[in-house]
Input
Amino acid sequence: MKTQTDSKLIFQYQNGDEKALSTLINRHKKDLFTFIYYKLMDEDLANDIFQDTFIKVIVTLKEGRYKEENKFILWAKRIAHNLIIDHFRLQSKNIKISETSFENEEFSIFDIIKEPDGNIEDMLIENQINEDLVKMLVLLPENQQEVIKLRYFDGLSFKEIADHTETSINTTLGRVRYALINLRKIMEEHKIVLTK
Output
């Protein structure tokens, strides 16, 4: 049996064939999920964004607003990418400025992540900063990755992180401190500049 094109499946789905949608999703789900996961490095969050992406895809197809012939996966990835940006933007509103509770800390690299003012260029730069940040986090030990994500992306307090990780507040503070130091080293080694 000849494999049907994405465009043909979309046409069939828009004309009432629900199975065509299942075929379309199954064809692209691994590629799309991998794309999302490597931007977030968090399986639960990637699953949420993946589901939200397909809800948007289905609504757009149902309303007949899909116009991009033979570019379905690129279009779906663009929807996912925009949802990821929205997620980081929401998280960045919760980031506390000046996470510098240690004597030797001159600055925190998270100080420069600020809520965008609506300027598209600033939003693109902020997205690049967040992408760089996610890439750098992967290079940290797992326990440091965890505390940074909980603190800066999930907005938990140090006490909440200590409870969540079943460690003392001192251990949590230490992990955050070493994570920030390590992130700074990674920035220097890879010549990553997180500024606007």
Observations:
- Residues 1-98 form a domain with the Rna Polymerase Sigma Factor; Chain: A fold (CATH 1.10.1740.10).
- The chain has two domains: 1-98, 121-195.
- The mean pLDDT is 76.
- The first helix runs from residue 6 to 14.
